[in-house]
Design brief:
The protein is an alpha+beta fold. The protein contains 21 helices and 13 strands.
């Protein structure tokens, strides 16, 4: 009898606990809601830094999505409630084209920031604006596109260090390069566009072919490139600066090095914007001001534990404020992009041309150099082993269309449908036959 009463009491207690657990817990409202492509380390360090700045605990809700997904979400919400609030405060990270698009569509609005904050940000770098004249977006950090190399591995193979895109395309680098598929990596696609704009369509395309032919493998993401180079499996490849700097810091500057090719690199702001009718506008503007302030900018670049630096995670990003670079520790493997800009390292990219042929470049490189990578490598090796016969080189450089024709084809690709599929099939056959002719002419 006593046992049954005990069991009954336990059962009743369990039922009460289960009933309590079933009651929905109301989540505390967020102080700030930020949508971002930035990783969790960046989120954590800026949340901690901003909490210190305001002097109290904060509840920031971070919504992490790819930049394209962010634009799609804003588009969908706009269709559902034109001109209304998105229920979000800040759009943090991504590219200038995305923030420009959001601004022109009215998804963002000007932020009121203290004048002393803007005074610390140069109006432009290498001809690229660091913030919108109407203050609808502000560059929060800078990103450059260049080359990561394994210095120790190059020395072991008696190969010179890399200084240019031509070096990646040189016959001596056969099987020592790594690239990424531009259909899957937007940042690496920028590198390919840089080669084309620096060297022109015909010469630039030949260099891209040789870089791809020198590649031992083709990765699906830009973040995989520095991993392959750090292991020594390959020795160089195109890379975005913050992936490279992280690896250089881990391995040491005697092992790895990042270089912006002279006249062939690009630098671009990574913006932050105030979203339209932000629910927490005052705090959102204060957050943007903090990100652009010296205190916020130091979080990008200083090592963890350094005075004013991040607490746990090194972020390896370039500040947009020029004054931060003057006070950086000498042992940081990061160059001042404003000095490099003065030295002519960066080129002003034709953004209109780049946007117009993004799909064209992705599909052409993907079809000709990635999908037919084995045939490409075999043809290039035949040229090298055959002593670079003029007839073989002439065939190697032959393109299926001119640059002007490519702009028209780009519009057809953008339209999609059967015509776009036919173009891709035609290119595939063209390059299959081309590589066979190169092998034959190299004998």
């Amino acid at each position: 009898m006593g046992d049954s009463r005990y069991v009954g009491l336990v059962t009743s207690g369990l039922l009460l606990i289960l009933a309590w657990l079933a009651v929905p817990v109301r989540a505390q409202p967020a102080d700030l809601e930020i949508i971002t492509p930035h990783n969790e380390n960046i989120q954590a360090e800026f949340e901690r830094g901003f909490a210190r700045h305001v002097g109290r605990e904060l509840r920031i809700r971070w919504i992490k999505k790819g930049t394209g997904q962010i634009i799609q979400q804003l588009e969908a919400q706009e269709r559902g409630s034109p001109g209304g609030s998105f229920g979000l405060d800040v759009f943090f990270g991504g590219g200038v084209p995305d923030h420009d698009l959001a601004a022109h569509r009215g998804y963002t609005e000007p932020a009121n920031l203290p004048e002393d904050i803007l005074k610390g940000i140069p109006a432009q770098i290498a001809g690229v604006a660091n913030y919108d004249p109407q203050k609808r977006w502000f560059g929060a950090a800078l990103s450059s596109f260049g080359i990561l190399m394994n210095k120790r591995g190059l020395a072991a193979q008696s190969l010179p260090e890399i200084a240019s895109w031509e070096d990646l395309a040189a016959p001596r680098m056969y099987s020592w390069v790594v690239i990424a598929d531009p259909r899957k990596s937007a940042s690496v696609r920028v590198s390919y566009e840089l080669v084309l704009q620096q060297h022109g369509w015909e010469q630039g395309w030949a260099l891209l072919m040789q870089m791809a032919a020198n590649s031992r493998l083709v990765t699906d993401s830009s973040s995989a490139i520095p991993n392959e180079i750090a292991t020594g499996n390959v020795l160089a490849g195109p890379c975005i600066d913050f992936y490279a700097y992280g690896r250089v810091a881990e391995a040491g500057p005697g092992v790895l090095a990042y270089v912006n090719p002279q006249g062939g690199a690009a630098v671009t702001p990574d913006p932050i914007s105030l979203l339209r009718k932000a629910p927490h506008r005052a705090l959102a503007e204060e957050f943007i001001a903090f990100v652009l302030s010296p205190a916020g900018q130091k979080l990008w670049v200083l090592p963890p534990g350094a005075e004013g630096g991040p607490t746990q995670h090194a972020l390896y990003r370039l500040p947009v404020r020029a004054d931060i670079f003057a006070a950086l520790p000498a042992d940081l493997p990061i160059k001042d992009p404003y000095k490099e800009a003065v030295a002519g390292v960066f080129r002003h990219v034709d953004d209109a041309r780049q946007r117009a042929r993004n799909v064209l470049i992705s599909e052409l490189i993907g079809t000709a150099l990635v999908d037919r990578h084995k045939e490409l490598r075999t043809a290039w090796k035949a040229i090298i082993d055959g002593g670079s016969k003029p007839a073989a080189l002439e065939e190697w450089r032959r393109m299926p269309f001119t640059e002007d024709e490519g702009m028209e084809l780009a519009r057809k690709l953008e339209a999609g449908g059967m015509e776009a599929k036919r173009l891709v099939r035609d290119w595939s056959r063209f390059f299959e036959q081309k590589y066979e002719r190169v092998r034959s002419l190299s004998r």
